[in-house]
Amino acid sequence: MNVWELIIQQPLVNILIVMSNGLGNNFGLAIIALTIIINLALLPLTLSQIRSSKRMQDLQPKLAELQKKYGKDRQKLAAEQMKLYKDSGVMRAGCFITMIIQMPVWIALYQSIYLAMAVAPEALLNLSRFLYPWDAVYNALPMGREFLGMNLASPSIPLAILTAATQWIQQKMSITPSTDPKQAQQSQMMLWMMPAMFGLLALSFPSGLAVYWVVNNIFRIILQYRVTGWGGLRRQPSQAAEPERRRLKFDAAAEKPKEEESSGTIEADTSTAPPMDKDSLKPSKSRFQPGKDRQKHPKK
Amino acid sequence: MKINWPSRIAFLLALIITVGLVAVGCVSGLTPIGWSGGTVSNGFLYIGSQQGRMVSLNLTDDGRVFSEALAPVSNPGLFGCSSATAGGGCSGGAAGVPVYGTPVVSGNLTYMAGYNGKVYAYNTSNLAVRWVYPREGNLQPFVGGLAVLERPGLPAVLFIGSSDGKVYALDAELGDRLWESAVSSDKIWGTPTAFGDTLYIGSFDKILYALNVSDGTKKWEYPTGGSIVSKPLIYQDTVIFGSFDRNLYALNATDGSLKWQFTGQNWFWAEPVLYNGKLYVGCLDKFVYVLDPSTGVKIAEHELDSAVASTPVVVGDSVIFASEKGIIYAMTAGTYEVRQLADLDVTVNGPLAASGDIVYIHTQANALERVNAVTGALLTGISLQP
């Protein structure tokens, strides 16, 4: 047994088996419980990753402006970008570091689920190497594979669809629309590629793994919602309103320099509003107040 | 320069996950490959290959005859890792229907059960298929082997347990089903043992069943603390078998009452063997134990390099064991001294077979290795591929 198996895989496998035993020999519940526990343990890292990603997205308009301003001077551009990152408290490598820390845990959890299910005779034999000499472990094997009418050792079409759907939702929430057509296309491709890939994997692997993926995705959706709201799932502005929105933002930025600092937020807010006259954003004119303005108009 | 961080992160994530999935699915031996043992009969050795073929080896001139490859059940999935797969492209072994049970020979027919849920009967001379059960469709995968019951004046009967929890009895000559008995609430991966008018078989539901060979009705059952895949051994009026609860049990064959039990440190997977009035058994705790079959008292034990999943074989005055890592050991009866015969450096899970001084070992590399049990000489291996 190598170090990876000894330190990570073996404890996880045994915990999974003991949990299954404690949950009425229900392996499906054990997978759900362990996935949630691992997710909770990694919560600070995951939150940090989502927030870091969000801050990075929020900086995109400013980075675009810098690109526009210093596009020809690459050194100056790099320096300004670094300054922007520093001022905004964004660590560019932050997302990757947290992800790199999390990945071994996800892989170990995935491997442990696969091992504990002992789908093939060879896998069952292999599982024996990982067992602690506890009665609770030996008495629990083999684990019950029936869960909600499904056999966790066989692929399940409904779970594969659910895996793809939750993956798509989570992906959609975390991706913000880009003004760059190339980036937008890339994002769009990823938005469909990842769920399709996981859906196909779920169709090929035992559905116990799909349970893990679905629970994991739902957990991430909840976290993403808590940090960024619905994100990309919010209704996008129509194409006709797009040029108007950009122009409004530019005008507002020109006439209200202090609000430039939070232009990302302004953009997000106005994007959901219907198209309106650009004069309505001039500082001299008060903002439209739905209740009050409707009452004032008849008096005119 | 604009960097689309979310896309890059997602792409990296997808890449890492894909590599991880493929690596785990394909490297860790999680796909079924098969570990059929060999049966020696009339100068030939019959064995199921990892490509789903029955192979007969002429022990005199090493001539081989291959049957047609078994037909897979269905699409094994993207990575060949689904539960009912018939072998996968990523398994590392040869693609085909895995065969786990050791073939049995009766009269001029040889029998083999595949992971595709079918039982096959072959002519021993040319390995042409005589019959298939079921003729249409497939049952759940067969992991355990067949047992044959031959009685004077009566047609031979085949017995096998299936992953659907049923035990099937087939007419050995025609392949007709005589009866089926849904005894277990879980899979049956163990090989049955037929003795007298009783069939003994263990199940994943942790119970050893004793059935009437005539109709499959239950005579008695004995619950243990773990699943049972080891083939029961009959010694006088005692049935001896191992369980996943780390115990080796000895029951009264007539009523299923417990005579003794011996506790190891891991599962008992392999069938024990009897030699010179002593019981020799390998365990997944890496130990081989020598016990008194009447009392279960331990006489000797020896720790090997790795787990022992393969059933040992007796050659001369020695009991030959194979460890999972492919090291072959000989334990001398009487002194219980253990010496290493050969290191095959390949995984061995299947039962050993022997003819004369030669031990035949089916490795996970789909080859039949040969070791002289007296001299320890490693003879040229025989490929099980046509």
Describe this structure in words.
Chain A is built from 14 helices and two strands; from the N terminus they run ααααααααββαααααα. Chain A has 300 residues and is an all-alpha fold. Chain A has a domain of 144 residues. In chain A, helix 1 packs across helix 2, helix 2 packs parallel to helix 11 and helix 9 runs antiparallel to helix 10. Chain A is elongated. By secondary structure, chain B is mainly beta. In chain B, a hairpin with a 2-residue loop joins strand 1 and strand 2. The longest helix of chain B is centred in the first third of the chain and has 23 residues. Chain B is globular, with a radius of gyration of 22 Å. The N and C termini of chain B lie far apart (59 Å). At the A-B interface, helix 3, helix 4, helix 6, helix 7 and helix 10 of A face helix 1 of B.
Point out poorly predicted stretches of chain B.
76-94
Count of helical stretches of chain A:
14
Number of helices of chain B: 1
Q: What is the helix/strand order of chain A?
A: HHHHHHHHEEHHHHHH
- The secondary structure category of chain A is mainly alpha
**How do the strands line up in the largest sheet of chain B?**
1-2-3-4
**Spatial order of the strands forming the largest sheet of chain A:** 1-2
Largest sheet of chain A, described in full?
2 strands, antiparallel
Strand percent estimate of chain A:
under 5%
* Proportion in β-strands of chain B: 35-45%
Most extensive chain contact? A-B, 57 and 54 residues
Structural class of chain B: mainly beta
Query: From the alpha-carbon coordinates, what is the Rg of chain A to the nearest angstrom?
Result: 25 Å
